[in-house]
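Objective 1b: paired records.
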Amino acid sequence: MTPPTEPFSTAGDPELGRLLKDFQQELTAIEGLRDRITSVVGRGEAAEGRVVVQVTQTGALAGLSIDPRAMRLGSDQLAAAIMEAAGRAARAAEQEANDMVAPFIAGTLLDEDGTGGTRWR
């Protein structure tokens, strides 16, 4: 007997064909999710919008804008404003990534209450 030329041949088994098609669609969706998550950038502001920080979903600094009026704060207050804006940006990026992942984990063991209330981390 010769082996089939396609290792996942579904000839004669429509249910297996349907399962494989569903699996391939889910895999494609997960790959798209991965690409979208890597492009997440959160934005945070402080000092009445005079300090704006952008960070990636991993927390890497992606942008920093300091309005010249923020220089009047003094170095300690300016540093605190940058840290505050960075924290807000990180939380925004985390929330955006969580919102993207939520549909994929809803109703699974990763979703403790089954309603999407617990987020993937």
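Objective 1b, second protein:
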Amino acid sequence: MHMLLVITGGAVLLGLFLLFGHLWGGTRPDLALAAKYFIPVWLAVALINMWVGVTKAGYSVREELPILLVVFLIPAALAAAAIWRLSR
């Protein structure tokens, strides 16, 4: 359940980045740039989520790595799709 909430949070954060890209520029390249900025920010958030899982919840790094990949890749793939679509 926590993993689904984090992934949903990533999708919402991507939406916020796109909203601010629209508010500050409004053109398709500006929206694509906002989605590009989202990816490293989301990587940092996913790594912090992994760190909390290891240090506070007691999971090992080996147990948390697959979760990190899923949690990072799904919103990052949504961002990549947005970048591809907006760059056309």
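Helices lie at 2-24, 28-55, 61-86. The CA atoms of residues 20 and 34 lie 8 Å apart.
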